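## retry 2 of 3
previous attempt timed out at serialization; input unchanged, resubmitting
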Amino acid sequence: MFSSTFKTFASIVSTALLVSSAYAHEFTLGDIQIAHPYARATVAQQTSGGAYFGLENKGKQDDKLVKVSGTIAKSVEIHNMEMAGDVMKMREVDGIELKAGSKISMKPAGGYHIMLIGLTQPLKAGDKFPLTLQFEKAGKIEVVVHVEAASAAPMEHQH
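## retry succeeded, writing output
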């Protein structure tokens, strides 16, 4: 009985690890860790999208994400979304400061994100595409962005 229970448990754990490793992917450039780059799937005729990931500066020196580029869109920009009274405003920023020991989490609702303007193809769940991140001190790294199914209706915002 113990043997079959243990085998079942081991099978469940190994399946869970395989599934989670398919969704959790990280990249490291010096002291900078980039966690789980992803984008949401787009709908027909949608010409822009967003990409999101976590950033962690594990070093003792401040750094800054200064540029993101890729061929998935005509323009790739670093944006920040914030509330101004009852209106959500989004604007391009010149980078994201990464203080030593700090973490930043990009999410679809508020805060920083990567804006993909003039998509060269629809973003379909299950697809992947590369983006190149340029840091002021750490340098450049290419990351793979996984396209996930859109889980919520797109939010309206103003530029």
